[in-house]
């Protein structure tokens, strides 16, 4: 009998599939499509200390097999998350990963302090959002600043701490190593790639911020390579993501070394994608006679 | 998964597509439509009509997604997700429906579901489906080229429902004030309120076109 | 009247479209499809001092809107290029860009010395091939090693020198700046992104080298962003590339700051693509009443 | 740009597609086939037959590319680039054509262009097109399951042309030695010798399957 359960940061996940931050809200929008307790976990929309109204102008642009987004971390802020969303999420019967972003170190600290008091399973420290000007990503671009923020945050929370890494980092392996060195319990990768689009008719850039974040199947080969590289160079577990559209992609990430896998853009293609992939993963395990994902994790 | 019943070019580059099945939906709602893995995102298309055993969509071929739609033939498969969104409400009183360009698409089903409506349709070059629209309203007014707003006596109506180019809807809102409800268009990814990509800036803060809209009180919307 | 001519490194190109190294051989394979004198230029297959037989095993893998390749710089070597290919190329009536790679600094030097004596218009120093183990890319990953090799090569050639940059570099802007500082006449970007693929049935990596290079429309939004960033930070001209499939993409790269644009993977989709895009660019200029590409270059 | 004349499933997952037009090609050559922007690469498919006003392809649905082919209907458009490659040569003498699985595809047109051939076809589960192949050869031998090589008396033939799984072709080369010509399959991007992606390691060095092949002297090929 196949058992889909995996341990990640000492927490039990009923299966390795989680939904990616910013693509699943707080779950509400998907509850009518399937029973969300089927998921291994849900990563919340990126939270900041104070509410954020997000970016103006175009927020989406489709590219070949990819999606550029410039949402700009629109979110209700940590307080309202705790009051209005978390109680709902707790009833869903799946693990909650609170994704926290920020513009300044102080914001990060305060937000993490507040979230740490709550009943969330994991904190995902987002230092990789390319869509807010003075925001997250600058902390995640090199191992020195990554190490610094992880050290600080580690000192203020006892929650399992996962750091979400940027594919735009100078060297994602060294960033992951810095996370490990400073006591992070895991890393998640990748966030979106910094990309851009130009409207040649109007001769203007599509996004007010000029650059936006690229996600979807287009980035999968690169994301998979990054997960593989990181997994060979750190001992903390990985949440792998970037263009996963079906169970086959998910298995590739697991074989490359990911313990959990996350779907982002795929949720937009079909709101039931989470359930579909969980079912397909189960079927795959059975067909291939895999008893536990440990058997295939990191075998490449 | 639906099956194409028919997919006809009714005017240059404009298609009327019927999909078999018992689909639901209110006036002004839309479906997210796709065929296969490509293009990546589904395309939002308004409900043009719902009949007993089929739903229809009226669309213009713009880019890759609609190009693929246009090539669909009888019996081909199509994926419809929906109905999504908050459409036009059923209100008492005399209502004008004003459509510009492809904005006319949702007004057919809207008219069918309302009593006592007049329809104003503005086309840039040539009109189509006049007969059909005539069958679902009291008075049909058609304008080819120029401003459709020139034809409308706003005082005659209790409500104005409009869909079309933003400039047109902005103008109508100016003229019709708080009688006007507009159907807003934004690029969409999820269609269900999860990605926050279809943001519409309103007097009541950020709204999601796919979930809070596409129909909003005209005066609430900050036009771009 | 629209004039497609552009100056690049003081050399006149009849139009901005060149074909990308490694995707156009030495031109021969395309000569039956269209008159190659229509092209602005041709960048040769990456040349190394000695002949290379390339990589074993799978060399190609298709991804959503992308192509992973692991050719491994198969080429006849500089000598045979000079003897057997260059005379043919000289007759084509288009500019010749000799793309030169290498495994050691010495190889680079010798190869460049040889090529410099020949009648090629530009030397493209390839320090960004991800597909040879001890190869080119390690030189192009950071600005220090980039600066070093460019300095050295600059001292041994007077030919216009363009450096082909890697999107896998830690910071492509700083690499470009290092090229400029050391006297390069231009930069070309991007080479392929390091990606990977796994065959979940056999539970093996697809490529013997594990990683391969991703090209094609999938990478366009990222490549475009890199060209834009670089163009805002250096004063030497840019050959922009990465996923250009039609004239619209080409115009985006020009608006982002590229002087020349290069098509790679697009040649595989339709062998006449070069001619098609040149014609379409011409038509676009006329329709939009653009007299010279200078009018729109770098306007974003 | 060609137009589909017909596209029929002749056995589970195996399709015979006819495209209208005056196409050229020699036996064992192939076309690079695509429909639209997706998937990115064209698919190499052998010439199955060429008639006065049409060309046909016999293909198995494997993945995304062939899935799209399979959905094509009469009058749909398709892009054919070719003919490419060095196919089977016209040689004097008695020739055996041995096909395994979809490797049978090019052998029909090959047989049509040769005199004095016997055909051996190996299928894993069920056979198809027996009648058609019977019409273009002296003797048709069919085997379902097991090894097709068991049926062939290699001494009887001056040449052996084969196409099919690599293991089969390797075995045939072992048995038939320098009489054997094999048609090699590799993933392709350009199809014209430019990308160096379809490399085949041979005794004479690197060869491009798309340009130097797909047909090689069996003994020259290093099987994987
Ligand atoms: C709620 C809603 C209802 C709509 N109803 C209709 C209808 O009934 N008939 C009709 O013809 N059109 C309708 N549209 C517009 C239609 O969605 C676009 O024309 C279509 O998505 C264009 O896709 P494409 O692939 O042909 O064009 P592309 O330009 O290739 O599309 C690229 C991307 O941009 C998006 N996009 C492009 N134009 C628009 C647009 N105007 N609005 C939203 N997204 C766009 C696409 O969805 C896609 O993600 C509606 C839009 C919305 C938001
Ligand atoms: C010279 C030549 C002639 C061929 N003739 C025929 C034929 O007549 N009938 C037929 O059914 N098949 C033929 N094939 C195999 C056919 O090209 C593949 O089955 C097809 O490309 C699979 O595409 P897909 O999108 O369905 O599969 P996918 O697995 O989705 O394809 C993904 C990628 O892998 C490549 N690929 C997958 N399998 C093969 C393969 N076996 N050979 C080469 N590339 C592959 C595809 O071209 C594509 O680039 C031939 C191959 C070659 C090289
Ligand atoms: C619309 C959108 C919003 C996103 N918002 C966030 C966010 O708030 N915080 C975060 O860490 N990642 C965010 N991401 C990144 C995703 O969680 C994920 O890392 C990325 O999209 C790659 O995965 P995918 O290709 O499966 O989408 C967002 C992605 C998208 C497409
Ligand atoms: C099959 C293949 C071989 C390549 N070989 C080389 C090479 O030898 N030297 C080089 O500088 N770039 C090489 N490249 C990179 C291309 O020149 C180009 O930089 C890259 O593919 C991005 O452009 P594209 O998306 O238009 O293909 C190769 C690319 C491909 C796909
Ligand atoms: S389209 Fe995703 S929130 Fe509206
Ligand atoms: S497919 Fe490109 S060389 Fe053969």
UniProtKB/TrEMBL annotation, chains A, C:
Q: Which SUPFAM superfamilies match?
A: FMN-linked oxidoreductases (SSF51395)
Keywords from UniProt, A to Z, are: Cytoplasm, Flavoprotein, FMN, NAD, Oxidoreductase, Pyrimidine biosynthesis
User: How many cofactor units bind, and how?
Assistant: Binds 1 FMN per subunit.
Query: Which cofactors, if any, are listed as required?
Result: FMN
The biological pathway it contributes to is: Pyrimidine metabolism; UMP biosynthesis via de novo pathway; orotate from (S)-dihydroorotate (NAD(+) route): step 1/1
Report the InterPro entries cross-referenced here.
Aldolase_TIM, DHO_dehydrogenase, DHOD_1B, Dihydroorotate_DH_1, Dihydroorotate_DH_1_2, Dihydroorotate_DH_cat, Dihydroorotate_DH_CS, Dihydroorotate_DH_I
Q: Which residues form the Dihydroorotate dehydrogenase catalytic domain?
A: 4-285
Q: Which PROSITE patterns match?
A: DHODEHASE_2
Provide the protein's localization.
Cytoplasm
List the EC numbers from the record. Answer: 1.3.-.-
Q: What does the record list as GO biological process?
A: 'de novo' pyrimidine nucleobase biosynthetic process; 'de novo' UMP biosynthetic process
Q: Where does FMN bind?
A: 21, 45-46, 99, 126, 164, 190, 216, 242-243, 264-265
Which is a Gene Ontology cellular component entry for this protein? Answer: cytoplasm
Chief location of this protein within or outside the cell: cytoplasm
Instruction: List the GO molecular function terms.
Output: dihydroorotate dehydrogenase (NAD+) activity
Q: Please list the reactions this protein catalyses.
A: (S)-dihydroorotate + NAD(+) = orotate + NADH + H(+); (S)-dihydroorotate + A = orotate + AH2
The positions flagged as active site in the entry are: 129 (nucleophile)
- The entry's substrate-binding residues are 45, 69-73, 126, 191-192
Gene3D superfamilies xref list: Aldolase class I
User: Which class of enzymes does this protein belong to?
Assistant: oxidoreductase
Give the signal peptide, or none. none
Matching NCBIfam families, A to Z?
Answer: PRK07259.1, pyrD_sub1_fam
| PANTHER family (UniProt xref) | DIHYDROOROTATE DEHYDROGENASE (FUMARATE), DIHYDROOROTATE DEHYDROGENASE (QUINONE), MITOCHONDRIAL-RELATED
Protein family? Belongs to the dihydroorotate dehydrogenase family. Type 1 subfamily.
Function in brief: Catalyzes the conversion of dihydroorotate to orotate with NAD(+) as electron acceptor.
The protein, known as? Dihydroorotate dehydrogenase
Species lineage: Bacteria, Bacillati, Bacillota, Clostridia, Peptostreptococcales
Q: Which gene encodes it?
A: pyrD
Automatic annotation (TrEMBL), chains B, D:
> How is this protein named in the record?
Dihydroorotate dehydrogenase electron transfer subunit
Q: Which residues bind FAD?
A: 43-46, 65-66
Q: Which cofactor does it need?
A: [2Fe-2S] cluster; FAD
Q: Which InterPro entries does the UniProt entry name for this protein?
A: Cyt_c3_hydrogenase_gsu, Dihydroorotate_DH_ele_sf, Dihydroorotate_DH_Fe-S-bd, FAD-bd_FR_type, FNR_nucleotide-bd, PyrK_electron_transfer, Riboflavin_synthase-like_b-brl
**Superkingdom of source:** Bacteria
Mention one GO molecular function.
Answer: flavin adenine dinucleotide binding
Alphabetized Pfam families for the sequence: DHODB_Fe-S_bind
Coiled-coil intervals: none
Which amino acids does the record list as binding [2Fe-2S] cluster? 190, 195, 198, 210
**Entry keywords, A to Z:** 2Fe-2S, Electron transport, FAD, Flavoprotein, Iron, Iron-sulfur, Metal-binding, Transport
